[in-house]
Amino acid sequence: MDNQNSKITIIGAGPVGLMCAIYAINNNFRPIIISLDEENQKTAGVAAGGMLAPAYECFEEADDDLTNFALCSRKEWDNIAKALGIDIAPYALALGNDDDELARLEKIKARAKSFDLIFEYIKPYDFLDCKHALSLTTDGLLNPIIAMNRMRKYCIENGAIFINDEIINIEKNKIFGQKQDYKSELTIIANGFNAKKFMEKVSATNKLIAVRGQVIEIDCKPNFDGSMRHNSTYLMARGDKIMVGATSQMNDEDWQIRETDHEFLFKNACQLMPQLTDKKVTNSFAGLRPLIKGEAPIIGESEIDNVFVAIGAYRNGWAYAPYMGKILIENIALGTNIPMYLSGK
Asked: Which of 58, 128, 181, 191 could form a cystine bridge with 12, CB 3.0-4.6 A?
């Protein structure tokens, strides 16, 4: 299609929405991004750890389609990060202690080999209460706050328009906000679990399940780079603080901070890294992850003409965002029919 003067309205300004906007700009569209301001967003993107972890997330259980998707998105991140000045820490460890945990690491290592990737064990850091550490050379870590700001800045500098409003309904060539209604030539729904409100018009959004997640910030200067994961617990270096996550509460739409989760995360962190015992928790963040059965995103054309979806990245919004945006925008630019890709099978 002739997209030189075409506008795309993107609902959502999280990682996926912003990536759709960036690829739209790079394909000569003019994006309009509509979302609530950051202070009022109930989003997983700003509360996330920022891990780009295809190996840890996919190499144990995911099928080849989703695994290849995750690896391609991780490669895409290298180009985007360089262009936008976003730092990615290329250090990621998967940790284990007992025989069952070692077997899990071995499974990840064997799956990596099937993709021609070599993961090696290294000596765990002395400050960890841990016996085994597998280096995941595909995985990385970014700071989501910095990344979000750089992505927004790029969009604004290249002509994107941001509108502070909450979209409550949608139809062909028109969307309805709390503040006003908008005409839209092309519309992309990319607002995570919040897209569930469109389920009467866009059936794909009805598949979304809220999974609440909370992370904490500990006042301790990291003596490591990147991220370390032990089962469901992860520790991340972020500036002069250590981030710890994450809870995972299915069908829980409460995005308020909980003291019980705060205590649970701190206890897990101290068990893995005993030196944290006398440190203070300085902040907590919570968000709703948009899960779809099968843990694969939905990317494609809805039943409403000129309305598309890019939803369901679950806990991998930052990791999957580049490829979700790339696939969707490039197919829209070519005018090709886009089936529901990786539709949570």
From this structure: 191
Grade residue 36 by pLDDT with cuts at 50, 70 and 90.
confident
Taking residues 214-221, what's their average pLDDT?
95
Q: Answer yes or no: do 216 and 231 share one domain.
A: yes
Angstrom distance (rounded) from CA 110 to CA 117: 9
Task: Note the pLDDT tens digit of each residue in 266-305.
Answer: 999 999 999 999 999 999 989 899 999 888 999 999 999 9
On average, the pLDDT of the chain sits at 91
Rounded-to-integer distance, Cα 230 and Cα 101, Å? 9
Same domain, 154 and 280: no
Closest C-alpha to 134, from 148, 145, 146, 118: 118
Domain that holds residue 238: 90-140+209-291
Tell me which residue of 223, 221, 192 sits closest to 280, measured CA to CA.
221
Is 237 in the same domain as 326?
Answer: no
Per-residue burial over 272-288, b = 16 or more CB atoms within 10 Å of its CB, e = otherwise: bbeebeebebeebbbbb
Asked if residue 122 belongs to a domain, the reply is yes
pTM, whole model, 2 decimals?
A: 0.93
Token look-up 């993709």 returns: 115
Domain count, the chain: 2
Q: Rounded CA gap, 50 and 44, in Å?
A: 10
Contact 224, 269 (CB under 8 A): no
85 lies in a domain?
no
Confidence of residue 3 (pLDDT cuts 50, 70, 90): low
Whether residue 257 sits in one domain with residue 280: yes
Q: Given this model, what pLDDT does residue 211 score?
A: 94
